Amino acid sequence: MAGLPEKMRALVATAPGTGSVEEIPMPAVQYGSALVKLDASLIHNAAKQAFDAANPFFKMPYPVVPGAHGIGRVVAAGPDAVLIKEGQLVLVASFTRARDDPNVQNLWGVSPLFTPQTIKLYTSLIRNGVYAEYVLSPLENLYVVDEARFLGDPAQGGLGLSIPDLLHLHIDAVVYGGLRSIDLKAGERIIITPGSGFFSMAAVTVALAMGADVVATSRNADFLAALKKLHPRVDTVQTTGDVAADSKALAAFGPVEAVLDMSPPWATGSKVLTSAASTLRQYGRVCLLGGRMDESIPIPHGEILLKSLRIQGQFMYQRDDHFRIIRLAESGLLKLGRAGGYQLAGSFGLDQFQEAYEKSTKGSSWDIFYFKF
């Protein structure tokens, strides 16, 4: 490709927890793809777990370039591209579906998942993730952002954000997919459990932007106080693990239409979901978006039956959800950057990947760490 280097620098993982920065060949643009020169790539708090393959979910078809959730500029688009054009600023999303079978899906740069079909999709289409100077992306993984609106001067109608601030839209899209799956409406009350954590914090801000009344839970009183200061509309409950006491505290704010469970694997066995679900009114909805490993759902069968509750599992999002979350942020309702309580806590070069991984695991729910290219 004219004007582009023949090679690019990338972090190449060769085994769990093992990798180095190497020069690899520049990928060639094909039908159904575009080449993006990355500006920044997110290092979320589970990035080190993925790199280390801390559980089988993260085991990759080595060697690979890891990394999910990037943003950059299109430098070349395939001949069949109709929306994506050279020069556009785009989000590079990680959730990928097979074009001929949407039931085959994986997380680009994170996990090929477990079946022969998902592994074939990964190795043939998206082997190299966004921890590199350039990435060859399927067209359907790219989302154009309005540069003037997001990055422009507020005095001229812009939001005054930086490019790395926009990385959080990838996380917002995941939780938005969960909230849309249970048809959360403006004016409804939703309990988010737990309300602390990187993805949970996104769920709180997205639900607020959608017009919902939010009750956030956590065992951490200091976090809840900080969250209340940032978002006065949020009601907070410090949970204790006592089902009856927590249920009473969660129900004190009024009728509850929905619950979003964001519990991580280490919350397996927690009773907070039981308490939250007990507050639901008739025809209430529960979305399971976290990573709990319970063998059964910790909500009494009789309660599900008598209240006609809907239990919805949700893995990632629909493509339309990503378009919609960008529009919600463009409107100014969904707050990004400092207005949303987030801070750019660390910028790293690829050669600093070990330091970047370590620091990201110790960051707070408000911190954004990223590779800068």
TrEMBL record:
GO molecular function: oxidoreductase activity
Domain Alcohol dehydrogenase-like C-terminal: 201-329
Leader peptide range in chain numbering: none
Domain of life of the organism encoding this protein: Eukaryota
SUPFAM superfamilies: GroES-like (SSF50129), NAD(P)-binding Rossmann-fold domains (SSF51735)
Assigned GO CC terms: mitochondrion
Alcohol dehydrogenase-like N-terminal domain segment(s): 34-144
Protein name: Uncharacterized protein
